[in-house]
Design goal:
The protein has 181 residues and is mainly alpha-helical. It has 2 domains: 98 residues, no CATH class; 49 residues. It contains 6 helices and no strands.
Amino acid sequence: MFGVYSPGQEPKSYAEMTQEEQAEEGAKRLIEFMQSCPGKSAMAGGSGFFLGGFFGLFMASMSYDVPLGTDSVNSIRDLPFRQQMKIQFADMGKRTYSSAKNFGFIGLVYSGVECVIESLRAKHDIYNGLSAGCITGGGLAVRAGPQAALVGCGGFAVFSAAIDLYLRSESAAPPANDYDE
């Protein structure tokens, strides 16, 4: 299956394994998938979808304007309360799904691009995030023209660098003790 086997040591079939060996093999495969570029991209896309949905629901619930698809404030005020609520919840659902879809897509693309760049460079440093941010931001804005793509590239790269620097600062080794000078 996965791994290197010495001559004479053949991998067991799944049916020949004990329950513990099957669980261990399943865990190994899951970890290998999660460490692969498709696995990282899928996890980032799923996380982005979930967090984007939460963010979209919050923002839609805080919105005091007229729901999408209605002409004016007066037209919705004239409806019965139950109909008003139905329109409001339908609007919240559309906004939540739209936000979730956008965040999920951005997470999927950014994570996939960063993983591919890291694999090609065989290094784990801040330049992977900068490059992935630039490619993702520029790619998302390319339909709006070259100026928008350039701004998207710069904006995503700066945001990515800021997040990377913040996360790296939290993982730095603590000082040996407080008495060292």
